[in-house]
Amino acid sequence: MGIEHILMIAVLAAGFYMAWNIGANDVANAMGTSVGSGALTLKQAVIVAAVLEFSGALLFGSHVSETVQKGIIDVDSFVHDPLVLVCGMLACLLAAGVWLQIASYYGWPVSTTHTIVGSIVGFGFVYGGVEAVQWENVSFIVSSWVLSPILGGIFSFLLFTLLKSAIFYAPDPVVACKKIAPLIFGLVASVLTLVLIFNGLKNLNLQVSFWHAAAYSAITGIAAVYCSFLWLKKRVFSSHEHIVSGYGAVEALDELEQAKHHLMQASSGLSDKQRNRLTEVAEQMDLFKNVVQSDAINEVEDGNSKHYGMIEQVFSYLQIMSACLMAFAHGANDVANAIGPLGAAIDILQTGAVSAKAGIPTWVLALGAFGIVIGLATWGWRVIETIGKKITELTPTRGFAAEFGAALTIVIATRLGMPVSTTHTLVGSVIGVGLARGMGALNLSMTRDIFISWIVTVPAGAALTIFMFYIIKFIFHI
Questions:
Q1: 318 exposure class (CB count in 10 Å sphere: 0-12, 13-18, 19+)
Q2: Residues 258 and 237 in one domain
Q3: What is d(CA 53, CA 47) in angstroms, rounded to the nearest whole number?
Q4: Do both 254 and 199 map to the same domain?
Q5: Are residues 320 and 393 in the same domain?
């Protein structure tokens, strides 16, 4: 068996290992909010991700990868020594896989793309020195460390705050939800259609302008408003009239305010002594209102009433909807990007030459998609637990705000040409939802550990690649 055949087997095994770790970390963090909020069980999340990630990668995944030559290293320098590039890509796959496995073991949600970037930087450094790496392009990619979580956190914070004010603090939350929910369904459908077009279907090389995409999204949104209105009226809100109003703290708070208003109106025709007595009663009502208001806030935060349970059910559907489309877009866009080094290595081993654009065969995409599903099913629960439970407590409403805030960030950043990390965006969104409930709602020690893991990711990938490259070079005597 020649060295090319041995390297082919090695890079395929390393590619599957890398894909397994993508499933255990990258895909798991995307499903974490849905599982943590209870919108999906772990088994359901695995099935949803399996179908949609696999379909996205296989049907719409990029068949031409430019991961190696995205301005990180110059592949032309390997024209006379292509096997060195193969060994370098093998080292990148192994190093990235090892770092992702370490991160998954500790439940750290890290960026697969940043791991691969760090690995390629490490290989470029060890092969050609500092000059071999185009640092200005690398710094542009790394800038997403700051942009992604901040933007995601801001959008999710504002969205959850708006939902609390417009629905949960309304006199009748279900009536408010009836009016607002169909509009939210339409908005979600529109935004996620944009995410699908720009982050998923862009690999089909379809020339779709932003305004055409916006028109398609608007049509989808209008249809979603109409369909969701009919569906929610029949499936969710049909039992609302059977619920006796005035039982909850929020409703009691509203009734107390009205009672105080009528009481003060009645005092106009009374004597001074009677008015003083009424004033004392009003003061006692204010004290009681403070107690009830505290209970009302707890009701909203914990979702522990029948009304809030009904509202959370609505948002669980919205969250599942966003999770499905995000999984499809991730499979279509990020999977092929992550296994780009595998495509580059296979192309060299099959043709014997270094190509500027390394083609990724369909069967390689299928291998990567299969590895992702296995990784999510076996080890994904670790990162899912971090995203869904260890940063802040999630309900379907909070989970939806986090996931939709992340989707909104992705589509806006794509339009502006800004580099963002799906992982960092989602984690920032979850933190934003937690901050909307106060600093005490966040697990600060876990948040600190996640931030540290982000900072370490690129240098860790680079260092592991250098170590792996020297071992592979020694084994194959290249």
A1: buried
A2: no
A3: 10
A4: no
A5: yes
Number of domains in the chain: 2
Mean pLDDT per 10-residue segment, the chain (478 residues): 85 92 82 83 83 76 55 73 88 94 90 86 84 76 78 92 87 84 91 71 63 86 92 73 47 65 68 73 68 56 60 86 77 69 84 72 81 86 82 85 85 68 85 84 85 89 93 85
Answer yes or no: do 287 and 309 share one domain.
Answer: no
Verify that 122 and 7 share a domain, yes or no: yes
Residue with tokens 């092969």: 127
Backbone dihedral angles phi then psi of residue 65, each to the nearest 5 degrees? -105, 135
Q: Which two tokens stand for residue 409?
A: 């960030």
Domain that includes residue 309, residue range: 3-241+305-476
- Shared domain check, 76 and 116: yes
Residue closest to 450 by CA, chosen among 149, 18, 201, 139: 149
pTM: 0.76
Domain boundary among 257, 284, 302: 302
416-420 contacts, C-beta under 8 A, 24 or more apart: 418/143, 418/144, 418/147, 419/140, 419/141, 419/143, 419/144, 419/147, 420/144, 420/147, 420/148, 420/151
Cβ atoms within 10 A of the Cβ of 266, count?
Answer: 12
